[in-house]
C-alpha cells in the first residue's frame, strides 16, 4: 500500500510497529494464562489473536476504503 495523492496518510513507520509491540507486551501474564479458563484457548493462540487485533487496530484503522482494509486483513 503505497501512498498516493488521495491517500497521502498511508505512510507507516516504526512508530506503528512499536504500538503493536506495546499493545502485545502490555497484557499481564495472568490474563494470557487465564485465556484457557475463560475462552478455552491456549496461551499461544491467545497471543496470536492479540497480535492480529493490534495489527488491525494500528494499520487497518488508518485506511480509508473497504478494498484497502480487506487487502491488509488478507495479508495479516
List keywords for this structure.
76 residues, mainly alpha
- The amount of beta strand, in percent, is under 5%
Shape: elongated
The ordered string of helix (H) and strand (E) elements is HHHHH
Number of domains: 1
Biggest sheet features? none
What is the rounded Rg? 15 Å
Q: Using DSSP, what is the number of strands?
A: 0
Weakly predicted, low-confidence segments: none
Characterise this structure:
The chain is mainly alpha-helical and 76 residues long. α1 runs antiparallel to α4 (43-59). 63% of the residues lie in helices and 0% in strands. The chain has helices spanning 14-25, 29-33, 35-38, 43-59, 66-75. It is built from 5 helices and no strands. The chain has one domain (12-75).
Question: What's a quick, concise take on this entry?
Answer:
This protein is mainly α and 76 residues long.
Amino acid at each position: 500500500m503505497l501512498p498516493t495523492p488521495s491517500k497521502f496518510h498511508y505512510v507507516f513507520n516504526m512508530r506503528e510497529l512499536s504500538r503493536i509491540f506495546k499493545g502485545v507486551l502490555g497484557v499481564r501474564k495472568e490474563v494470557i494464562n487465564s485465556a484457557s479458563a475463560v475462552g478455552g484457548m491456549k496461551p499461544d493462540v491467545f497471543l496470536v489473536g492479540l497480535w492480529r487485533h493490534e495489527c488491525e487496530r494500528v494499520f487497518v484503522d488508518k485506511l480509508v476504503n473497504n478494498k484497502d482494509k480487506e487487502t491488509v486483513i488478507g495479508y495479516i
